[in-house]
Amino acid sequence: MTRTPTPLLPASVDPDHAALWQRLQADGFGEGETALAAFERRVAEEAGVSPALATHLVEEYRRFCFLACVAGEEITPSPLVDQAWHAHLTDTREYWQRFCPQILRRTLHHHPGRGDPADAARFQAQYAATLAQYRYYFGEPPAACWPAPAGTRPSVPAPRLTGARRSAPTRRGVALWGWMLGVALLFAVLWQRHGPLSPLHWPGPPFLLLFLACIGLAWSLGARLRLVVRGLRRAALDTPLDVTELAYLAGGSERVADQQLALLLAAGAVRLQAEPHVRRQARLQSTTVAVPPALQRALAIVRAHPQLQQALAALQRDAAPLRRALVAKGLWLGHGQALCARLLGAAPLLALWTLGVMKLRIGLQLQRPIGFLVAVMVVVSVVALGFLLTPPRRSVAGDALLADREAAWRDGVAAPSLAPGSHLALPLALAGTSVLMTTPWADYHALRAPAANGRGGSCSTSNCGGGGGNSDGGSSCGGGGCGGCGGGD
């Protein structure tokens, strides 16, 4: 992720406001040449994000400070911007004795919420107003740091079909035609020497040579037929998909369960109690921290199943409706379509297997050696069983959409989330618990993947009001940050 470019303020901005912005742009959040880098490292630890995102976040914190001073009303930061603010506030001498009087030239107070419903509604309104102010001065806020306000349904960015992805089916078609041409040429050569007899009556070596070539052809044809069935239903490239559906698309119900539980841990609503790498004894202890509506059902399930394995199983069962939703959107295969893909994929290999059985019978009748043919038949059987017993899950459109989301995420194009710890929801959906390895919740990843060695950083949360990203009052900076500030004195 690159450093956010310096934005141009509207031409009509007040000269005092322009001067304030110039001071903020020049400030390194401390004294000395290394102050800015040190602050970015503290923000990365406080928010549990990557150094690249922390750099972006510091620039968004500059903009928040500007808005807090010029808005003329209370404003509310996003959860990640609020974490940057917390990191700055912990250096009390720098914040109160230098930053406020010299850079802002006024005091900027932090007002956490009380967690009651009235606070939640007020903070949500303030967060929406903050985004409006942001758009006026700086343009559209980046979703990576400013999630969508409550009441809107965020979706991940629309797919971008790359040239490589578009050419994948073409490459498969070329491979199939290549096998067909090769088998046809080989058959023509062998026919010249052993025709007009049926290939079943050819001597063993030429038949085995043709049979081996036909394995490649049958494999390629089976894969092509399987792909055709998976691509029968097409999905629009702008299909709306929230992060929970994306998690199911990437890893099924198990991925959804991991995502929901990890977000509850990040929100502070659940605590993990377990010895390192002892799965069966792991327990979950719920707290009094409120969570947004998107996580309330998951929290109720965890409270009813305090054992980790039981909670995960219950969350997986609860994710079953997501499959039907993805089938309806054309991104997941229904039972009938999946069965058809398995049968058609195995059909060419089963036909070849039948041909081999016929040759075996002829060999036994003529008392010819059949050892090599039996070995090759075992290979054909294994490949055919692979097609039959491996159920396809995603449609072709689902594969393309998921690949695009992963590419966008790795390129640093983040999307809004439905839960607290919004910077974790999308990575959890796409990559699973491995993204927790450098966060305070690395122990959960260690329990889910004992071979991985996670190293957690430090992160503090506050019982803040919340305003955007579908949070309600009392969440741990969930979705809308803290109650905000009252501007300058």
From TrEMBL:
Keywords: Membrane, Transmembrane, Transmembrane helix. The chain crosses the membrane at residues 174-192, 204-225, 339-358, 370-389. The keyword Oxidoreductase does not apply. Coiled coil: none annotated. This is TIGR04222 domain-containing membrane protein. It comes from Xanthomonas sontii.
